[in-house]
Design brief:
The chain has 298 residues and is α/β, with parallel strands linked by helices. The chain is built from 13 helices and ten strands. Strand 8, helix 9 and strand 9 form a beta-alpha-beta unit.
Length: 298
């Protein structure tokens, strides 16, 4: 049977997928990335093609660690988890955009565990309505916030409106074009991370023990959110209203709820310890790295 021709990647019914935490059918990666039937078909065909190639590999290097995903890794006997693969804060590997280091001095002036850090990675884009709801929600939260707004982060929002917003929150919030994320997440002033749940950001937040407010958009971000909220218990999700918008009231409410949840904070701290232990000498990822070195030397 030609599986590439048989599977179109379209949603036929919404039901729980075994061995996965809860994810809506429309949020499965090949569906959320496909705006047309043709795109979904291409996406699922790529997934199937990759799955057929996996058994042919002697070793699959993964940016995760054994304690984080034991069930998934049990299904991949040739996997070699080395994560968290995060560059030391003192020796960053490179920058997607020029970093605004002034935010570090600003963080130094904030109280411990007080700052809401907001960053949506390198590709997330908000329309004008959602952009303004996010801005107003951060202002309503009453918390100091550090918000990363790339040059192409929004479509339609006027510069005049945004300049007025920044003047309104001056002294309470700081907006930068790009931030040194690892140094921000490791800063004692940071209380939580409003994130798109991209895998790199998820691993960085986990390594530094920062609770998440999850705001995924596509691909694996929805399943990453489900792991954060339903498996690891280190965050909560932001919900869209009937317009498909995360409203300012939702942002205000969830920030308050997250920062008052001692259970989430405790679990985030526990996972930080596990992540650090995995890459320390004798940890699971450290041992796997030594194994990889031996494999490459054969």
């Amino acid at each position: 049977m030609n599986m590439d021709a048989t599977y179109a990647g379209n949603v036929k019914r919404n039901e729980r997928v075994q061995l996965m935490p809860p994810v809506d059918a429309a949020e499965i990666p090949w569906v959320s990335l496909g705006s047309t039937p043709e795109r979904r078909r291409t996406n699922i065909q790529n997934v199937l093609r990759t799955n057929r190639l996996i058994p042919l590999a002697e070793t699959i290097i993964c940016n995760t660690f054994m304690e984080m995903e034991p069930d998934a890794l049990a299904l991949l006997p040739n996997a070699l988890p080395l994560g968290p693969l995060v560059a030391p804060t003192s020796r960053p590997a490179g920058h997607f955009l020029p970093e605004d280091l002034t935010c570090l001095a600003w963080l130094d002036a904030q109280a411990p565990c007080s700052v809401v850090y907001v960053a949506f990675g390198s590709s997330g884009i908000l329309d004008a309505t959602q952009f303004q709801e996010l801005a107003d929600g951060l202002a309503l939260s009453g918390r100091p916030f550090l918000w990363v707004v790339r040059p192409n982060f929004t479509t339609g929002a006027t510069k005049g409106w945004f300049d007025a917003f920044k003047r309104r929150v001056e002294g309470k919030g700081l907006v930068v074009g790009w931030a040194p994320q690892q140094r921000v997440l490791s800063h004692p002033a940071v209380a939580c991370f409003v994130s798109h749940c991209g895998w790199n950001s998820t691993m960085e937040g986990m390594l530094h023990g920062v609770p998440f407010l999850c705001w995924p958009y596509f691909a694996d971000q929805f399943s990453n959110q489900s792991y954060v909220c339903n498996v690891w218990g280190t965050g909560i999700k932001l919900c869209r209203d009937e317009r498909g918008v995360v409203a300012k009231e939702e942002i205000e409410s969830k920030v308050a709820r997250l920062l008052g949840d001692e259970g989430v904070k405790a679990r985030a701290a526990t996972w930080k310890d596990k992540a650090c232990a995995s890459i320390a000498e004798g940890g699971s990822s450290h041992e796997h790295l030594l194994k990889l070195v031996n494999l490459l030397g054969e």
